[in-house]
Here is the input.
Amino acid sequence: MGAAELVHDGIYLVGGASLSHFQDAASFIVRCEEELVMIDSGAGKGARAIEGNIRGIPLDPARISLLILTHCHVDHIGSVKYFQDSFGLRVAAHELDADAVETGDPALTAASWYGTKLPRVGVDRRLRGEGEVLVVGGTELHCIHTPGHTPGSIGIYLDRGGTRVLFGQDIHGPFSPEFNSNMEDWRESMEKLIALEADILCEGHFGIFSGKKRVASYIRGYLDQYAGSY
Here is the structure.
């Protein structure tokens, strides 16, 4: 459907509705010296297209050592098994979403919304508490717990060449009791992300936002939109 897009130095958008399959949330590759890190994997049907986009950069998907999941929803985790089976990578997710990822729970993963079933997969690294730093190839990937959309949602950021890049997938929601959304937690999480003063925001469905002011404005726009919600 499309070719990978350069976000910033060694950081690429490789999957999404216009790049791989219409059901896919955005997925990214971060080059960390000789290793690659993948952030989210799409909904499943676009896995081969995502692989092709990675090869087109050109990078070898066999160099992906780690796949970090920002949360447990199907449009972000549906291709986990494909990439695990094909390339033997390790998978990381927050402990509060990890069980849903592993079991493919139809409600918690929103798979029922998509009319699909998820295969059982393994989570190798359960991220705990308020945040952890994963170091891959000398690159520090800061995984910040940002509950609200789901209990185990995380934001991921890294600093490269004086630029802070934030992966804040699904800032916009949606929110539902079916997957244990919590609006008060979400509001606190959004304030956390704003405080990071990121230069670039990579959002799960609505694109790449550049410039500190634009990033903060995008997030605050949703805080204003949902003001007074449950």
Summary: The chain has one domain: 5-225. The chain has a mean pLDDT of 95.
